Amino acid sequence: MQEVPNSFPNKWLVMTGIGLGVFMSTLDGSIVNISLPTLVDIFHTDLATIQWVVLSYILVNASLMLTIARLGDMRGKKKLYLTGLILFTGGSLLCGNSPNVYWLIGFRALQGLGATMMAALGTAIITENFPPSERGRALGLIGSIVSIGIAIGPPLGGILIGFTGWRSIFLVNVPVGIVTTWVVSRYVPATAPKNKQQRFDLSGALILLLTLGSYAFGMTMGQNLGFGVSTILALLGAAGVGLVTFVLVELRQTDPMVDLRLFRNPLFSINLLMGFLVFMALGGTFILPFFLQLVQGYTIEQVGLLLMVQPVIVGLLAPISGSLSDRFGSRVISLVGLAIVVAGCLYMSTLTAAVTTLGFGLRLAVFGVGMAIFQSPNNSAIMGAAPHHKLGIASGLIALSRTLGQTSGLPLMGALFTAQVLAVSLLPHGSDVTNAPATALVSGVNDTYRMAAWVMLVSTLLAALALWLDYRNTEKIRNTEGVKENKNTEKMKQDESVEGM
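The structure assignment produced for this chain is given below.
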């Protein structure tokens, strides 16, 4: 990868523009989630309908992430990022003026398209504008911004809804979006596309859209309908067939949507898989409000404040872990982070009905420390393993692994939690778990986090494998350089002997 000179004058202004875009998109997601009960009342609708306010956003995100990342490599990242900013800002304005729930769902899809453009290309733009010696620190700052957006979303959403109404949770993005658009257009350099002569892989894009759309739709709807329903099985089956078809088509393409040669690098593939597994395990976080409200009796405002512990810690520590990865290597730091996350999951699995606020906060803090130490070094390792002309697609793959991990983990952990609660409480299948006794809910939380610990252990073993592979590759390079140096030394001695004669 080519190194951007340290004298590049606008790298921190670039960070400001990209960081503001990241902040908006993460803030929006956490604000909207806490507003769903309010929206049900305001629009006189039901849970099955209102969940599409979130689903329409997620489905667009998962389905188009890699398509946009590919276009960024081909057509230039700045132009597409700016387009995403404008769509997101305009979509926010439209969401805030929606006349009914169906218009809101449609405008959320438009907003999701803009957010997808920013998520797919933001990491690549940061990587291009910071030298490798500062990449971990820069990506750590982006990780902090994500955590801050997630952390302040619930309390800010509650304040905005309480004082100014539900429309303000969308309209708050508009002034920030205008400022961000000016900063990006003014200070982010328009780097020349690396693949001007390549054609866009339309067939690959369509197959990928149908494949990821079927997968995301099946996994999200399976939470409500059940994964044994024929419709859900058909969607997941179609996703599997689509994946095989996509690989076969891409192998024959001259200019493929996803260059599968990237995955010949085992370190690149392992780090992506690690990220997927981590966000899959994070799906268990959504059960914590049930524990806090139904078992411990906290109010929704208190729950929002307690759940801020993890993202706040990630926000504070992510830049530090990024800097440490620049100094000591990303693989060692990410391995340490994953080991702490495993400990955090096991600690969370010891929750009881009598746990104090401090005890709950400490458990969540350990989990947060591990996530902070792992995430930015892992992202740095992925971007460092990608060729310079493939940074867009690498950035898109990071964002996609996160989205698919959450899409998979939430229903998996939710199904495990529900099954354990129903089994302990002896309630029939299909019963509402909120009616279960506290002991059953505690057992469900404990079991879910034990499963999350196993998932994280697999990711930790993969991190150890990546560290070993990296060490082996480094030794091979050193040995090769040593052989070359010895040959050069011998040649110099022979030349000196000839001259002496």
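Interim note for the steering committee: The mean pLDDT is 80. Residues 438-500 form the longest helix (63 residues).
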